[in-house]
């Protein structure tokens, strides 16, 4: 490349750090009219910039001086962040681009970025060291497992037998996986050596697996129970057998009885910050099913991208699904010199929903409102913007124009229209509406919002937010849907106690919601955010705004272990969810690295009772599971 950008830490205080940025022109040409754009994770204080001007939109910083950038010369500038000191290389410059204007137009020139110099010695990364694998390595740990004598050999005439419509989807999933695993053609028939048997005496989600030399029996009373049984059988398959001989596939004879601790066991994937192709989404769902998760929370909209087709508003995907140097939505995080984006068609979404349902997983869509709505607002300014609104605010992600206006009629038309199409696409009972991180002062100078506050006697912006969310909740109820939201959904005290709150800030906020009468799903960033770094080395990928989450820390998460929670209050905990936010996750390799093996640890936290979990035993079983991940070529953290 002709340009290089270096970032160095030059002064560190507890709540402020100063940086030196050096832009090198390595070419033989003088550059006259140019702008430097670069991406950083934190807010640059405008007054701290040593010379020139800098403005920031989200993670995108735009710097210019009006001076030429001469050949084989460099530009030096300084600036400050008023946050805790950086400790990781990922907190440096994610990407950079030089926008050069000539008489032929504007050209986006990529810039090489070097690793940030933190000005301090960093720790070495600690590798994953595990004990020897066990004979049987099931994750999550089942309630009861008894090994018996003998093995069941999968022969080339093996078939899967289904005895009802309830277990047919799980039977088809098992047949597909066996066919892939064995490189043969395993079909679902009336009779077979692997049988799925309906038994209405078993409670929902419970299952039994019996492996005998004559065959395998999976017993359950509903779709989820059969899916759990299938996932257990799949984990009993050996991972190191020859692909050529079915006779090499021997399942150990066992008797297993099992059921989950929590009814809701979720994983959230952010597809807005970086778009993930369909195959990546489906592969994740397949692994979630293998480890007995039962809800896939699909974060489909945010400031940086709108990822779901809405027929009534084609602009949402024509404009809102794309960002880049010459797009309506500016580039963010990575790919500053080129376009990035994508969206899921309705046909693809139905494909994902059906794929997940076959595996016992409910897809929960999230349409984030009223904050995190910049992609929508930029796509539909004619109905979502108030020209007279002079409010000045800055969101935590450094946007000043990303919140829907509850005083506009168009806002409610937008919400109802979008949610109507969302409800038609997703047959599950739940829709997540976000509701997080609405900044202060957001509607302070909006004439329509101030008039609404006067009409309804509201005294704060939180009540305006609650007004909008209550409207969304009431609309969803007409569609037979239950509303989910982050804990900020309770602000303004307008939504009903039927709304389930997802607690992400910390457990304390979740407990407050419980004591105010809400059911909760726990997703504390300090325990379950898989975008957090897995190690304390500066080289480790990830961030640490919540904290660093090594594998052991993830495994030892126990809800309210350090809080005085009554058994009745604990009954309001409906489950646990982990999340992968994707500001910096834009490749398959990094996607896998951030997920695995911590996803397996969270799976056991969600499923197995506290007294059943044992860290040393889990490590041995994990070692056995890594052979499976190796077989698939998954880039887990080693």
TrEMBL record:
<dbReference type="InterPro" id="IPR029018">
    <property type="entry name" value="Hex-like_dom2"/>
</dbReference>
<comment type="similarity">
    <text>Belongs to the glycosyl hydrolase 20 family.</text>
</comment>
<feature type="active site" description="Proton donor">
    <location>
        <position position="437"/>
    </location>
</feature>
<dbReference type="GO" id="GO:0004563">
    <property type="term" value="F:beta-N-acetylhexosaminidase activity"/>
</dbReference>
<dbReference type="GO" id="GO:0030203">
    <property type="term" value="P:glycosaminoglycan metabolic process"/>
</dbReference>
<dbReference type="InterPro" id="IPR015882">
    <property type="entry name" value="HEX_bac_N"/>
</dbReference>
<dbReference type="Pfam" id="PF02838">
    <property type="entry name" value="Glyco_hydro_20b"/>
</dbReference>
<protein>
    <recommendedName>
        <fullName>beta-N-acetylhexosaminidase</fullName>
        <ecNumber>3.2.1.52</ecNumber>
    </recommendedName>
</protein>
<dbReference type="GO" id="GO:0016020">
    <property type="term" value="C:membrane"/>
</dbReference>
<dbReference type="InterPro" id="IPR015883">
    <property type="entry name" value="Glyco_hydro_20_cat"/>
</dbReference>
<dbReference type="InterPro" id="IPR017853">
    <property type="entry name" value="GH"/>
</dbReference>
<feature type="domain" description="Glycoside hydrolase family 20 catalytic">
    <location>
        <begin position="262"/>
        <end position="609"/>
    </location>
</feature>
<dbReference type="GO" id="GO:0005975">
    <property type="term" value="P:carbohydrate metabolic process"/>
</dbReference>
<keyword id="KW-0326">Glycosidase</keyword>
<keyword id="KW-0378">Hydrolase</keyword>
<dbReference type="Pfam" id="PF00728">
    <property type="entry name" value="Glyco_hydro_20"/>
</dbReference>
<dbReference type="InterPro" id="IPR025705">
    <property type="entry name" value="Beta_hexosaminidase_sua/sub"/>
</dbReference>
<feature type="domain" description="Beta-hexosaminidase bacterial type N-terminal">
    <location>
        <begin position="136"/>
        <end position="259"/>
    </location>
</feature>
């Amino acid at each position: 490349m002709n340009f290089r950008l270096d970032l160095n830490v030059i002064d560190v205080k507890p709540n402020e750090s100063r940086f030196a940025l050096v832009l090198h022109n390595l070419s033989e040409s003088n550059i006259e009219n140019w702008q430097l754009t670069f991406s950083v994770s934190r807010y640059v204080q405008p007054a701290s910039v040593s010379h020139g001007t800098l403005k920031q939109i989200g993670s995108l910083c735009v710097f210019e001086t009006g001076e030429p950038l001469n050949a084989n010369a460099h530009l030096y500038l300084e600036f400050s962040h008023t946050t805790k000191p950086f400790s990781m290389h990922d907190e440096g410059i994610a990407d950079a681009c030089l926008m050069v204007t000539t008489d032929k137009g504007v050209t986006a020139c990529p810039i090489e970025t070097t690793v940030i110099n933190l000005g301090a010695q960093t720790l070495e990364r600690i590798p994953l060291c595990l004990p020897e694998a066990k004979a049987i390595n099931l994750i999550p740990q089942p309630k009861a497992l008894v090994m018996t004598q003998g093995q069941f050999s999968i022969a080339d005439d093996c078939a899967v037998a289904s005895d009802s419509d309830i277990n047919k989807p799980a039977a088809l999933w098992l047949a597909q996986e066996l066919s892939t695993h064995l490189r043969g053609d395993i079909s679902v028939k009336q009779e077979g050596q692997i049988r799925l048997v309906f038994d209405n005496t078993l409670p929902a989600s419970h299952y039994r697996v019996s492996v005998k030399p004559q065959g395998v029996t999976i017993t359950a009373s509903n779709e989820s129970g059969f899916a759990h049984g299938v996932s257990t059988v799949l984990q009993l398959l050996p991972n190191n057998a020859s692909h050529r001989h079915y006779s090499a596939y021997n399942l150990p004879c066992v008797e297993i009885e099992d059921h989950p601790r929590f009814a809701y066991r979720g994983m959230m994937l952010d597809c807005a910050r970086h778009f993930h192709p369909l195959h990546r989404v489906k592969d994740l769902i397949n692994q979630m099913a293998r480890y007995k998760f039962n809800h896939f929370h699909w974060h489909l909209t945010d400031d940086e991208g709108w990822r779901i087709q809405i027929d009534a508003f084609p602009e949402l995907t024509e404009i809102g699904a794309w960002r880049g140097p010459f797009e309506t939505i500016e580039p963010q995080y990575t790919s500053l010199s080129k376009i990035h984006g994508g969206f899921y068609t309705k046909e693809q979404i139905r494909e994902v929903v059906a794929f997940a349902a076959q595996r016992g997983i409910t897809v929960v869509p999230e349409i984030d409102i009223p904050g995190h709505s910049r992609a929508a607002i930029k796509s539909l300014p004619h109905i979502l913007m108030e020209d007279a609104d002079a409010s000045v605010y800055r969101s935590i992600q450094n946007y000043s124009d990303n919140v829907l206006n509850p005083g506009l009629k168009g806002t409610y038309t937008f919400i109802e229209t979008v949610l109507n199409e969302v409800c038609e696409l997703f047959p599950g009972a739940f829709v997540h509406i976000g509701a997080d991180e609405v900044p202060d002062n957001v509607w302070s100078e909006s004439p329509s919002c101030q008039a609404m506050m006067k009409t309804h006697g509201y005294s704060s912006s939180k009540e305006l937010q609650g007004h909008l969310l209550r409207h969304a909740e009431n609309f969803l109820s007409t569609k037979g849907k239950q509303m989910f939201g982050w804990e900020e959904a309770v602000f303004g005290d307008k939504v009903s106690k039927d709304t389930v709150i997802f607690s992400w800030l910390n457990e304390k906020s979740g407990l407050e919601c419980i004591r105010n009468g809400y059911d909760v799903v726990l997703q504390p960033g300090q325990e379950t955010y898989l975008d957090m770094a897995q190690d304390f080395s500066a080289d480790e990928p990830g961030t640490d705004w919540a904290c660093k989450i090594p594998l052991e820390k993830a495994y030892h998460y126990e809800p309210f272990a350090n809080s005085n929670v009554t058994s009745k209050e604990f009954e309001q905990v409906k489950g646990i969810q982990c999340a992968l936010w994707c500001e910096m996750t834009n490749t398959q390799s990094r996607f896998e690295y951030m997920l695995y093996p911590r996803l397996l640890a969270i799976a056991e936290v969600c499923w197995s009772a506290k007294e059943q979990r044992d860290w040393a035993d889990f490590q041995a079983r994990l070692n056995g599971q890594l052979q499976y991940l190796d077989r698939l070529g998954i880039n887990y953290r080693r």
